[in-house]
Amino acid sequence: MTEADVLVLNESGLHVRTCGVFVQTAGKFRCEVFVRHGDTEVNGKSILGLIGLAAENGAVLHIRAQGPDEVEAVAALKQLVDSRFGGMA
Description:
Number of strands: 4
CATH topology: Histidine-containing Protein, Chain: A
CATH architecture: 2-Layer Sandwich
């Protein structure tokens, strides 16, 4: 299992477009991906689950992956969040 904490840096937090990009990125990997915010953990490949986290700017997300390419998946998702989802607001 590979895990990482990331800080949501974009002003609007997690919204539909950022969640869509996250899900697309997570979907490139064969491993299972989970994202936790507070006490709630969701499937990181579910856009509705991610939107439901209602993570605002400054929120800390815990990404957890398990499977054959878990290290690469967590690294890619951490990079995505760290880059403010490629510059999205």
